[in-house]
Amino acid sequence: MTDRRVLLPLALAAGLLAGCGGDDDSSDDTAANEPADAVEATDTGDASTDTSADTSTAPVDDGDDGSSTPTGGTLGVPVTATVVVDGGDTYEFVGDGTATGGQCREIFGVLDVNALLVSVSGNAMPDGSGDLQLTVPLNAGDGLDSEVWLDVPGANWYAGSSSPAGLSGVDVPALSLTATETSASGTQDLVPLVSGVNPDITASFDVSCG
User: Fold this and answer.
1) Tell me, what's the pLDDT at 161?
2) Which residues share a beta bridge with 148?
3) CB 156 within 8 A of CB 124
4) In the chain, where are the structural domains located?
5) C-alpha to C-alpha distance for 145 and 163, rounded to whole angstroms
6) Nearest one of 128, 137, 132 to 81, comparing CA atoms
7) Which of 85, 86, 143, 208 is deepest in the core (most CB within 10 A)?
8) Residue 59: CB partners within 8 Å, gap ≥ 6?
9) DSSP assignment of 113-170
10) Is 104 exposed, middle or buried (0-12, 13-18, 19+ CB in 10 A)?
11) What pLDDT, on the 0 to 100 scale, is given for residue 70?
12) Low-confidence stretches of the chain (pLDDT beneath 70)
């Protein structure tokens, strides 16, 4: 038979041990919960974002340096021209306002004309029979290049500020025509591109653009 005086202290000791074990579990739970709370706080901080929008835009340069648009009032318009050579044959030229069909332009202070021959003294001429090319400065004192090419059946005459190939040593007449933004006129001396085949001539010019 067991003595109760022995059992009672054993029971008390067992109870104390059980109480201590419960307290340790509770402290462990509390410690385990603390990192979770810290993580939640960190997540909340990460979730915050900068909602301010950058509305600044790059500056737009809308300035015009003048290089994109040539100066002048006539760009690619139709042209008609009449050239009378030494008071004899009359040559008629036309242009439809295109680069291939003949046109008149005023660009950078120069009247530039390209027209196709359509008739000689009233007689119609086939396509490709000849053409007229003029480069006449609006102000003769500007020192800009100037020239006249008169290409007609059987002859090709020239005058201007330079000597093209084939005219080396030839006294090339200076340009005497006058021009506005839409016209050119005057009497002009010309020399043949092939010396000795055709004579030097004097021709009157009447050119109208538009």
Assistant:
1) 85
2) 134, 159
3) no
4) 1-39, 74-209
5) 11
6) 132
7) 85
8) none
9) EEEEEEEETTEE--TTS-EEEEEEESSGGG----EEEEEETTEEEEEESS--TT-TT-
10) buried
11) 40
12) 1-74, 165-166
The number of angstroms, rounded, from the C-alpha of 203 to the middle of its chain's C-alpha atoms is 41
Question: Rounded CA gap, 121 and 68, in Å?
Answer: 43
Tokens of residue 28, six digits: 């462990």
Q: Work out the angle at residue 190's Cα, subtended by the Cα atoms of residues 108 and 134, and round it to the nearest 5 degrees.
A: 25
The separation between CA 87 and the C-alpha centre of its own chain, rounded to angstroms, equals: 47
Q: Whose structure tokens read 């080396």?
A: 168
Of 155, 159, 169, 171, residue with least CA distance to 202: 159
Sign of CA dihedral 127, 80, 97, 187: positive
Tokens (6 digits) for 86? 């030494």
List, for residues 17-73, the tens digit of each pLDDT value. Answer: 444 454 444 444 444 445 444 444 444 445 445 555 444 444 444 443 333 334 445
> For the chain, what's the residue count?
210
Give CA–CA dist 201/192, Å, rounded: 8
